Amino acid sequence: MSRRAVICGGSIGGLFCAAFLRRAGWDTIVLERSRSELSGRGAGIVTHDLLIDLIAQAGASTADLGVQVQDRVAFDLAGNRIATLPLPQIVTSWDRVHSLLRALVPDGGYHLDKAVARYDDQGDSVTLTCEDGSRFEADVLIGADGFRSALRGQMQPDVQPVFSGYVVWRCLAREADLPPDLRDQVFDSFGFFLPQGTQILGYPIAGPGNDLRPGHRRYNFVWYAPVEAGELTDMLTDAKGIHHPVTIPPPLVRDDVLDRMQAFARRHLAKPFLEILARSERPFFTPIYDHLSPAFSAGRVALAGDAACVARPHVGMGVTKAAADAEALARHLSAAPVIDALAAYGTERNAAAALAHATAQRLGRYIFAAPDQGHNHDGSNNPNLARIMAETAVVPAAPDHPIT
Ligand SMILES: Cc1cc2nc3c(=O)[nH]c(=O)nc-3n(C[C@H](O)[C@H](O)[C@H](O)COP(=O)(O)OP(=O)(O)OC[C@H]3O[C@@H](n4cnc5c(N)ncnc54)[C@H](O)[C@@H]3O)c2cc1C
């Protein structure tokens, strides 16, 4: 008789878990809190060879995964290219990865509008209870329910994501809306702008419907901007005066918050990114938090993806880490009894997550250049430019020296 895994969370992490476990012969049930099918509002995702291998191992096609860029380019304030680094990479979108994985999981095993509330681990099985009172029995329960995970909240109530001191604004413009000279300037490369006190990186992604044809794609950039705790509270308050703890849904961001961002952008952003911002859909922001759970499992319950650890986006590892968690879970569960398998999974993946977490924090610190590092308001004189260009959005390598 096949064993049953219940997976809490039907986003990229939960779908990877379902796909890998189904291939290993498990019966899977995915419970997703959202009432409607998920969509990522077009956010970009940088891929790595490791992620492409894992997507293929999960059983999905990697054909037409995204847009191929050949190199990385840094711009100064005026838009001059000041550095180039050859680094071929495929850049894709959250929606593309999600839809590839969603197709691997039959609708009968994927339940929307199921908010998981709590679990009870009885030793020989685990019972999950949803907020609507429905209950599910399983051999294994997986918390892939994101960085504010309800399952982690029960397993490790003291582990809370910590605000990093900055937010990321995300902007997305249609290629067809950009003037030809701007398209030529930015579309073939992974772009950077690295002045003192802020940081931008941008790249092309497919257009709606995974349209990869030149002229039909979109350009996506993320812009890290420091924010004081008091200012963040204001930014997370909507026009009706309601404060949204942690994150605010994009449509509720107040117009005056957007106006302030636009005014700051006009003073500080490199010309190509300013022009893209002017043609972008309504930008939205996400405060950057991070956390690393000290344990990725307890008994018959495991944490995966952002529920287990959030490494700040500088490493571009969220999706790859979630995929590698899922692969490791299925591999260990095929090799040992459940409780031993989850313990081995936790040891293996906690170490990998800790490396991504520490590397991302170090890359984040480069935003805040030390005063003794000289004048760099136009992005042309960043002493860490080569390191940032080489280490951002690549799989972190184990350091041969302590991480500073
Ligand atoms: C600006 C930015 C840029 C990024 N860029 C990259 C990049 O280039 N490359 C990359 O790999 N990653 C990137 N990431 C990270 C990546 O998007 C995430 O790491 C990844 O999507 C995590 O997936 P997840 O399934 O673990 O969590 P989530 O996507 O957060 O999914 C959790 C799911 O659980 C559901 N849920 C929550 N609570 C419950 C509950 N109680 N019951 C049932 N369901 C529940 C939620 O509705 C959600 O669908 C970026 C993130 C940001 C913010």
Concise structural overview:
The chain has 404 residues and is of the alpha/beta class. It contains 11 helices and 18 strands. The protein has a 9-stranded mixed sheet with strand order 3-5-4-12-13-14-11-15-18, sandwiched between helices. Strands 6-2-1-10-17-16 form a 6-stranded mixed sheet. A 3-stranded antiparallel sheet has the order 7-8-9.
Give the helix/strand layout:
Blueprint: E1 4-8, H1 12-23, E2 27-31, E3 44-46, H2 49-58, E4 67-75, E5 81-93, H3 94-102, E6 110-111, E7 116-121, E8 126-130, E9 135-138, E10 140-143, H4 150-155, E11 162-174, H5 180-186, E12 189-193, E13 199-205, E14 218-226, H6 229-235, H7 255-268, H8 271-278, E15 284-292, E16 297-298, E17 301-303, E18 309-310, H9 318-335, H10 338-365, H11 385-391
Parallel strand pairs: 1-2, 1-10, 2-6, 4-12, 10-17
Antiparallel strand pairs: 3-5, 4-5, 7-8, 8-9, 11-14, 11-15, 12-13, 13-14, 15-18, 16-17
Residues 8-14, 31-34, 38, 45-46, 94, 115-116, 144-146, 150, 168, 170, 222, 286, 305-306, 313, 316-320, 322, 393 line the site of flavin-adenine dinucleotide (FAD).
